[in-house]
Design a protein that fits this description.
Elements lengths: L14 H21 L8 E6 L10 E6 L36 H21 L10 H28 L1 H13 L21 H22 L5 H39 L12 H17 L7 H9 L22 E5 L5 E5 L4 H26 L34 H11 L3 H10 L30 E2 L2
Antiparallel strand pairs: 1-2, 1-5, 3-4
Helix pairs in contact: 1-4, 2-3, 2-4, 3-4, 3-6, 5-6, 5-7, 5-9, 6-9
Bound molecules: benzoyl coenzyme A.
The site of benzoyl coenzyme A has 25 residues, from helix 2, helix 5 and helix 8.
Length: about 475
Amino acid sequence: MIGEIPNNVDLDHDQQLRRALATWHPRFLQWWNEVGPEGFDASTVYLRTAVSASADGWANYAYVKMPEYRWGIFLAPPENRKVGFGDNPDADPWLQVPGEFRKELRRIIVTQGDTEPASVEQQRLLGKTAPSLYDLRNLFQVNVEEARHLWAMVYLLHRFFGRDGREEAEELLTRRSGHRDHPRILTAFNAPIRDWLDFFCFAMFTDRDGKYQLESLSESGFDPLSRTTRFMLTEEAHHMFVGETGVQRVVQRTADLMKQSGRADIHALGGIELAVIQKYINLWYSESLDLFGAEDSSNAATYFATGIKGRYREHTANVYREHRALEGEYELRLPGGAVERIPLRRAMNAVLRDAFVQDCERGLARWNRELAARGLEQRLALPHAGFNRKVGAYAGQCCDPRGEVLAAEEFASRRGEWLPTEEDRARNAELMQPVYEPGKIAGWIAPPAKGINGQPPDFEYVILS
Ligand code: BYC
């Protein structure tokens, strides 16, 4: 079994890693059987599998049964680099874990690793209501790759953290999304993903947090972490594509129905109303902002100072004047107009979040073009950073999506105007009946612009059995 794991980490000759994986692998498969996609183990899925880290090796397409997917371990090729930021920017990257940063590195790797199985658990029932075989296949692609990303973090734990690392790797299979006693570590990964609009918004916003966190970890002075996350980013791009184009296709269909009927209440015509789409955006965008941690964070300052975690494209984004970040302040605008000044190093979570927000705005503009192109005046928007927040400077305040501070009672009584209600969800559930015929698509979403890997529209992406 272990001998068949595709890898470029010399697994054949690493006895310690082979032993650790030999124990972990069967437990991983047990976890996948228990809480991975429900009801499709015997189906054959047209999946992309990474078989090597070379340019043509990470995207091989073939029909595979999910439990037989070959979860591999890959590092991106080494780069000639220095740590590049923090207190010692000219130092060489570390090939082993420096003793003095061990605790912090382990914590970051465990936090990253914990999100991956969590997302699979959150999405486990969605296959039962897929709008098409194309979407079903994309869901499963995302699921197997998130599971592979768990492997990527487990590799680091097993290879570099000895016994503690093995224990942490076990725990990654023990916690459960939304579990009362053993929840996943970060908030958004305990929130249920109940329908496909949740899923598309999650892949748009929450996977995009993943992109920015992985980008900042790919700057890490700990070279194995940098190389592992760089490879993960190649896969992550498809997940965000699934999210962004997924919402876009819902908006297209909604906009078509609004244009044809001249009305906004198009549920009876089989579409999801724009106001409901907006509520899902409000939910997942605000959940995802929480994932950046507090705007003022001594943890973030330590990670930056020590060279553990950098900024988004520290050297290639061309936006940072210098890489020690010892001077300067970040101005955080609070609801109500107050401004908090945070020393730059302590504001690294907020700096990273700003790059994320810009990227989300680009996606929103794309969705809004669908409305504009049909001559509709309505627009979708990102809510204010203070809306529905549980972490950081805005936590505990009640803001509406425009950033107006409200009394807690008013927020509670108007919550259903801004976040999905049980009624919205029940109406979505009515529409989201599964469509499993090749080339067919549910009525609430537009077909994709093109197939996966150039396949025709009626391609049988999943052979059900
Ligand atoms: N939920 O200084 P603070 C992905 C905790 S997504 C719960 O504000 P820090 C993916 C924090 O742990 C990317 N707890 O935060 C997407 C700390 O706890 P302690 C995942 C939270 O440490 C889709 C305390 O509050 N990767 O890959 O600067 C599908 C004060 O912390 C939360 C990473 O996150 C929260 N939202 O930053 C699949 C990268 N936020 O010390 C996958 C690794 C904060 O008091 N993680 N806390 O016990 C990190 O870099 C940092 O841990 C964080 C938090 C950015 C998350």
